[in-house]
Amino acid sequence: ARTLRIGLIPGDGIGREVIPAGRRILEALPASLGLKFSFVDLEAGWQTFQNTGAALPEKTVDTLKAECDGALFGAVSSPTTPTKGYSSPIVALRKRLDLYANVRPVKSVAPTPAFPDPIDLVIVRENTEDLYVKEEKTYDTPNGKVAEAIKRISERASFRIAKMAGEIAVRRQNVRNTTGDAVGKQAMVTITHKSNVLSQTDGLFRQAARAALEAPQFKNAGVKIDEQIVDSMVYKLFREPSTYDVVVAPNLYGDILSDGAAALVGSLGLVPSANVGDGFAIGEPCHGSAPDIQGKGIANPIATLRSVALMLEFLEQEEAAALIYKAVDGNLAEGKLLSPDMGGKATTDQVTEDVIRRL
Ligand code: NAD
Ligand code: MN
């Protein structure tokens, strides 16, 4: 059996309650998959900063690089006032490990009056450049201060993120065809940009993304190339979310779209994400450390369980991933063991056990 070594970075608050659930589901996967897991506990976050002076200890980075195939990151609390020496460990990890994509699937639980058709889409956000290169400056003028920021878009980063979006679209189509779920739904990647105004930066993103998606591997698989100006994209995403499949966007638009899309499905406790590079993936629930419910044992583990599956997908363990997704969907569809954020009474452990039972 193949052994995958997984770094566990619980972080702060409910991160410490949901990451153990992620470990449990990996340990509970059926032996027939021929997969084994070993784990290494790693530190990062606000508590770690207070203990050691570093939010992301070098040991965490070194261990991930040297020993691990993938990792799970819980959530971290940020200081409420700017604190010298503190910076976000997940942002640093994305840089240090060149995790150039942030992938966020958003899937509805049940039809609602506002959205009668199922929502099942993925936002693929470029994670290394755009306005987030953080090259800013402020200067004085006769009319007062002016601040500027660089928006950097490269052909290489735009191409590789769109290629990843295309690969995700193909994989989703294969899953639909094998599970019989929504067979016939058109595989599609929507390129998001504002090239009508930013003809050079977003123009380059659009052009490189198109070039990536026009490759034979995507054409032959029937992946449709769609595009949308970001502002009208927001409108349509909130009016007709069921029409989307995979959405690819530069960093800033992707950041905004992915948090917005998470709001379409109710609880933050349901929405997973993954930070992905070539050959490495970190699964990370999209919620924060939730200090208001910390220590009560009632955090919804589903965002983390889905993040585990998402990590496995990028480690090419699609069969294992599919089992977890299906078990989670089964728990939600039955609706008997739900955590309080979903209107239920179940604890983190009870939800986790119910999902494990369905594997
Ligand atoms: P949050 O996501 O922690 O919580 C928002 C609300 O959603 C809270 O009412 C919380 O109880 C609820 N919630 C979140 N996850 C849940 C779950 N799994 N189950 C049930 N309910 C859940 O956001 P916040 O309150 O704005 O931030 C709290 C702290 O987390 C802050 O310090 C913030 O900086 C940090 N944060 C970290 C991340 C991250 O690590 N990726 C993301 C967002 C916020
Ligand atoms: Mn964000």
TrEMBL record:
<dbReference type="GO" id="GO:0009085">
    <property type="term" value="P:lysine biosynthetic process"/>
</dbReference>
<keyword id="KW-0460">Magnesium</keyword>
<dbReference type="GO" id="GO:0004449">
    <property type="term" value="F:isocitrate dehydrogenase (NAD+) activity"/>
</dbReference>
<dbReference type="InterPro" id="IPR024084">
    <property type="entry name" value="IsoPropMal-DH-like_dom"/>
</dbReference>
<dbReference type="InterPro" id="IPR019818">
    <property type="entry name" value="IsoCit/isopropylmalate_DH_CS"/>
</dbReference>
<keyword id="KW-0560">Oxidoreductase</keyword>
<keyword id="KW-0457">Lysine biosynthesis</keyword>
<comment type="similarity">
    <text>Belongs to the isocitrate and isopropylmalate dehydrogenases family.</text>
</comment>
<keyword id="KW-0597">Phosphoprotein</keyword>
<dbReference type="GO" id="GO:0006102">
    <property type="term" value="P:isocitrate metabolic process"/>
</dbReference>
<dbReference type="GO" id="GO:0051287">
    <property type="term" value="F:NAD binding"/>
</dbReference>
<dbReference type="Pfam" id="PF00180">
    <property type="entry name" value="Iso_dh"/>
</dbReference>
<dbReference type="GO" id="GO:0047046">
    <property type="term" value="F:homoisocitrate dehydrogenase activity"/>
</dbReference>
<feature type="domain" description="Isopropylmalate dehydrogenase-like">
    <location>
        <begin position="5"/>
        <end position="355"/>
    </location>
</feature>
<protein>
    <recommendedName>
        <fullName>homoisocitrate dehydrogenase</fullName>
        <ecNumber>1.1.1.87</ecNumber>
    </recommendedName>
</protein>
<keyword id="KW-0520">NAD</keyword>
<dbReference type="GO" id="GO:0000287">
    <property type="term" value="F:magnesium ion binding"/>
</dbReference>
<comment type="pathway">
    <text>Amino-acid biosynthesis; L-lysine biosynthesis via AAA pathway; L-alpha-aminoadipate from 2-oxoglutarate: step 4/5.</text>
</comment>
<keyword id="KW-0479">Metal-binding</keyword>
<keyword id="KW-0028">Amino-acid biosynthesis</keyword>
<dbReference type="GO" id="GO:0006099">
    <property type="term" value="P:tricarboxylic acid cycle"/>
</dbReference>
<dbReference type="GO" id="GO:0005739">
    <property type="term" value="C:mitochondrion"/>
</dbReference>
